Amino acid sequence: MTTEQILEVTLREMTAYGEAWRMDWSGFDGRTLLNQLNRIETWARKALAAQADPHATVEEYRGGTEFVENV
Question: Were 68 and a residue from 20, 24, 42, 54 both cysteine, which residue would form a disulfide, CB within 3.0 to 4.6 Å?
């Protein structure tokens, strides 16, 4: 993945988490949000690190998208 693709996935998933929480504030838990954002960060850092390895594959992050689909 290119840096631009990693950024696009990161921004898309951050927006999805925000949209899902906005649709259902009744279950909001700051600790859950923190964990969700940390997972995005971990994925993005791994994806950036994998750029140096031509054999590395990085699964696209979809946690926020799945979260918003389940609200």
Answer: 20
Report the length, in residues, of the chain: 71
Q: What are the 10-residue block averages of pLDDT along the chain, 71 residues in total?
A: 95 96 90 96 96 89 96 89
Boundaries of domain holding 24: 3-69
> Whole-prediction pTM value?
0.89
pLDDT of residue 39: 97
Q: Give the CA count within 13 Å in the CB-facing half-sphere of 43.
A: 23
Number of domains in the chain: 1
Q: For residue 59, give the amino acid letter.
A: E
Which residues fall within 8 angstroms of residue 50, CB to CB, at 6 or more apart? Answer: 1, 56, 57, 58
